Amino acid sequence: MQRGIAGILCALHSKVPCNARTEARIIIIYMGSVPARPKSREPVALHAHAMDNLRFIRETMESAGSFTAVPGMGGILMGLSAVGAAFLAGRQAGVDRWLAVWVGEAFVAVLIGVVATAQKARAGKAPLLTGPGRKFALGLAPSIFVAALLTVVLYRTGLYAVIPGIWLLLYGTGILSGGAFSVPVVPVMGMCFVALGAVTVFCPLAWSHWLLAAGFGGLHLIFGAIIAARYGG
Amino acid sequence: MAKQSAVRQDRRPAAQSIAEATPVKLDRLIHERLRLGILSALAANESLTFNELKKLLKTTDGNLSVHARKLEDAHYVACTKSFEGRLPKTEYRLTAGGRRALERYLDHMEALIQAMRER
Q1: What is the pLDDT of residue B24?
Q2: Are B27 and B104 a contacting pair, CB within 8 Å?
Q3: Contact assignment for B4 to A3 by CB distance below 8 Å
């Protein structure tokens, strides 16, 4: 079988004389990461090596893409919209209207995030639904889903005061897990959200506008500016 | 020996079909794993620093430096050295020739897979 592969390889490189030494040398060339002296005489299929090489290229490109997956300008815009939402929410009379403002802000933020990520992926000619973008979305999505579910539960049980803290905690957790494959600044942003959420969850509802403005507004603005300056987007 | 020659004769059509499917000679400069990794990483980014490449490819300073130099000598990557504050910064970019070489290599690998599937 090894001679069979070598025969194919010799046909590929017909200028190279097909002796045993050359056969071994060409096989090693085609094996890429295989050591200079193969430990085993067991042959490995040629197309398997080609597929392995293509897989390696794809994985490297995906990992390298994580350097630019999270949009900086998108973060800044999300921060600005959150500051606006905090201003509006602080002027609302009841809890229902306060909650409605923040739920609306969540939809706006998601829209900004998706559009900014798509634009950045397009500008960098990187795939949006595969690689780092997909990893980030899959890491973030469970926390967002749990936050939405807990909001409904806590609203129905009347535990309004803990809702802002839960939002910050779960958003931070999602950023931490989604950002594990991204640049180091993204998980740091997640940790800041978790730390702020841990404080907020014990604070009265009256402080929530300031704390949410500091989190979804301030942290997004600061880290968005850092990401935009260092990694673009 | 005669049997082996016969086997080789039998397999010649398959070998020829692969040779026809992959007429371009394999670029051995790219074929090395780390150099292939450098080109792939740079294909996904406009530029990467030495430290980013080192972290991404999980390699040592010396190893990366040697392989990056080989790619630089072949004009597959362009290297820019500058200072960020007081710290030296080495940045790599993929050249047009490097991108073409990577595309040729991808074509070669795909042709090999295709030829083996059609056997």
Answers
A1: 58
A2: yes
A3: yes
How far, in Å, CA of A68 to CA of A161, rounded? 37
What type of residue sits at position B26?
A: L
DSSP assignments along A20-49, one per residue: HHHHHHHHHHHHTTS-SS-S------HHHH
Q: How near does any CA of chain A get to the CA of B96, in Å?
A: 16
d(C-alpha B113, C-alpha B109), whole Å: 6
For all residues of chain A together, what is the average pLDDT? 76
Cβ–Cβ < 8 Å for A67, A50? no
CB contact under 8 A, B4 and A54: no
pTM above 0.80, yes or no: no
Fold classification of B2-117 (topology level): Arc Repressor Mutant, subunit A (1.10.10)
- Strand ranges of the sheet holding B87-94, from the earlier edge strand across to the other edge: B48-49, B87-94, B77-84
**Number of A–B residue contacts, CB under 8 Å:** 97
Report the residue from A12, A32, A57 with minimal CB separation from B40: A57
**pLDDT of res. B6:** 46
Domain spans in chain B, listed from the N-terminal domain onward: 2-117
Closest to B40 (Cβ–Cβ): which among A3, A30, A61?
A61
Q: What is the ipTM of this complex?
A: 0.76
| Closest by CA position to A19, among listed A28, A10, A11 | A10
Flag if B15 and A63 touch (Cβ within 8 Å). Answer: no
The residue with tokens 């071994």 is A24
Residue ranges per structural domain of chain A: 2-65, 68-231
- Secondary structure of residue B82 in the 3-state scheme: strand
Binning pLDDT at 50, 70 and 90, where does residue A60 land? confident
In this prediction, residue A211 carries a pLDDT of 92
- Across the interface, do B37 and A60 touch by the CB < 8 Å criterion? yes
